[in-house]
Every structure is written in C-alpha cells, then in structure tokens.
Amino acid sequence: QAQLVESGGGSVQAGGSLRLSCAATRVTYSRKRIAWFRQAPGKERQGVASLHTGGGVTLYGDSVQGRFIISRDDAKNTVYLQMNNVKPEDTGMYYCAADQRGDDWWQPTYNYWGQGTQVTVSS
Fold first, then answer.
1. What residues contact 16, with CB distance under 8 A and at least 6 apart?
2. Any bridge partners for residue 81, and if so which?
3. DSSP assignment of 24-66, as one string?
4. What is the DSSP letter of 109?
5. How many Å apart are CA 68 and CA 40, to the nearest integer?
6. CA 42, 45, 46, 48 torsion-angle sign
7. Is CB count within 10 Å lower at the N or C end of the chain?
8. pLDDT tens, 80-114?
9. Which CA distances in Å does 14 have to 22, 61, 91, 114?
C-alpha cells in the first residue's frame, strides 16, 4: 500500500524557518503533481504549494508566495517544503498529497495523503 510520511514539524517563533519532508513508499513521484496542504482548527484544508514532477512547475498559495519553497529529491523519493519568515497564521497541520485527480492544484483531490505534521508558530 502506498504511503506518504511527513516529518519536520514543530514549534517556531514568528520570523523563523522550518523544513518539512514528505517521504513516499510504494508510490513514485514520477510524472505526478505533489502538493502541501495545511489545515487549521475549524478551517478547511488549504493548498499551500504544488510541484509537478513532469515539468517541474511550482505553484504557491497567495499567503505563502515568496516565503515558502517546494522542492524534491528524486533519489530519496522525497518532497520538501521550506518555510521561511513564518507567521502565526501559518500554524496548522501540514499534509502532503500526491497524484492529483482534479484540475485545480489547491483542491484536496489527490489519491494519496500523509498523516500530517503539526506546525505551531508563536508571535
């Protein structure tokens, strides 16, 4: 069974940085769209960043543009989310997702999901 495992979450002060990782087993990232989502308590899951491994195009949500960077390491079958200059509103559970089904990358319509890693940003 395919599995995505996130790591790297934790507590950080505003203005700091974190790097999240998403390692895949029994599913390859080849020619797929990979994305990071986050969900704050009481809110819907929100698309944060996306990368298509076929063309390498990256896309970002407006709230993280210029601060977050999505990247991948094919040898490790791992996708990363570098979070810089974090803000309290970045707090939430972060999920990685792979193999998009729909047309809009920011919609949570992916075939594979990880269990999530918590990020808490204090002011």
1. 86, 121
2. 20, 70
3. EESS--TT-EEEEEEE-TTS--EEEEEEETTT--EEE-TTTTT
4. -
5. 17
6. positive
7. N
8. 999 999 999 999 999 999 998 888 999 999 999 99
9. 23, 19, 10, 26
